[in-house]
Write a structure and sequence with these properties.
With about 350 residues, the protein is mostly helical. Helix content is about 75%, strand content about 0%. The chain has two domains: about 150 residues, no CATH class; about 180 residues, no CATH class. It has 16 helices and no strands.
Length: about 350
């Protein structure tokens, strides 16, 4: 056992929830952002503006989402170059074989292939052949073997959430909005979770609402402490910046969570807000306005996953735009400071509790 531990330490193979559930998952979301998400945005712009060149660029970017995710995961696992580059083939295979649940298949299979690749890296005199061969053979073999059932399970779970939200829009609106919003602020990737589950439709709209409640909420109610820099970094960046302060005083989290429990069902029951763009957008909130761009792209050019669930392109009305603005910006900016005011009166939150370091 000691020899195995020593070998893993020498090879930088760290089997832990943080390494796989936070580092790798977060990196996977970045890989998705730099391929599928940005590609979808460019392609949609090209379609709407009649610029075929943009459509082609977006299509190419979307096509390499599997390799992008796998390489990003390998980077998070600190793979040596030969392993890292070999993961491109693994990611392509896992994403293709996983179907609608491709991102989850890529996450699991890329981690396994990467760790095996790291284990054999530079252990032989023919490393140039052995390392990529082991990484690719194990990864692609696993993709053929387990990616389809992984994809089926992930897709089925996403469909269950989607159907449950349609049947119980009020209660599921609360549940999805609160849980995805919490995931966004925690040091995990809400975007990757939404992508893995293929979260679109009403459930996607509730997820967008929850993420916006966290980001806009923290940005506005901490304006006194963090001023304009904090407004931008949290409102267009991430509410994860508040995680250190939440650990010190969890009660500062009350206002955004309660706000998300309010805006979620308003999104699902009143405005019928659907996010039918790429599922990753459901977990992005106002980060680079990706959540809102996802809603818009879903209106004019729904993603393949959304179409499979019955989504169709629509011409958004003024009511649709009003709902998007209220859910994503106006209501969180009003509700969070008001709720936080009561928390302050109770003595739960004090000046300086939400000050960002640096």
């Amino acid at each position: 056992m000691n020899k195995i531990k020593a070998f893993c330490a020498r090879k930088n193979i760290v089997i832990s929830a943080k390494r796989y559930g936070i580092d790798a998952l977060g990196a996977m979301a970045q890989g998705l952002f730099c391929s599928l998400l940005i590609g979808t945005i460019i392609k949609t712009l090209g379609s709407q503006l009649g610029i075929q060149y943009f459509v082609d660029i977006g299509t190419y970017a979307m096509a390499v989402s599997g390799p992008a995710m796998a390489i990003a995961i390998g980077y998070a696992l600190q793979c040596p170059p030969m392993v890292l580059f070999s993961l491109a083939a693994v990611g392509w295979a896992a994403n293709a074989e996983g179907g609608a649940g491709g991102p989850l298949a890529v996450l699991i299979i890329a981690i396994v292939a990467a760790e095996f690749g790291k284990a054999v890296s530079k252990e032989t005199k023919v490393d140039l052949l052995v390392t990529p061969a082991v990484t690719i053979i194990i990864g692609v073999a696993l993709a053929k073997l387990i990616a389809p059932p992984i994809g089926t399970v992930a897709s089925a779970f996403g469909i269950i959430i989607d159907n449950a939200t349609k049947l119980q829009p009020f209660w599921m609106g609360i549940a999805v909005s609160v849980l995805v919003g919490i995931a966004l602020t925690l040091p995990i990737s809400s975007a990757a979770i939404c992508s893995v589950l293929g979260l679109t439709g009403l459930a996607g709209g509730a997820a967008v609402a929850g993420c916006c409640a966290q980001m806009v909420g923290f940005a506005v109610m901490s304006f006194k402490e963090n001023r304009w820099g904090g407004l931008v970094s949290q409102g267009l960046g991430t509410s994860m910046l508040q995680m250190g302060n939440i650990v010190k005083n969890p009660k500062i989290w009350i206002a955004p969570i309660v706000a998300s429990a309010i805006t979620g069902p308003i999104a699902t029951c009143v405005f019928k807000l659907e996010m039918n763009g790429a599922p990753i957008n459901s977990g992005m909130g106002t980060c680079g306005l990706c959540g809102q761009i996802g809603v818009w792209t879903g209106w004019v050019d729904p993603s393949a996953g959304a179409i499979a669930k019955g989504a169709t392109a629509i011409s958004p009305t003024g009511f649709d735009w009003l709902g998007l603005l209220l859910i994503c910006f106006v209501l969180p900016a009003i509700l969070c400071p008001v709720i936080n005011m009561f928390c302050r009166k109770m003595g739960w939150v004090k000046d300086g509790d939400m000050t960002l370091n640096g």
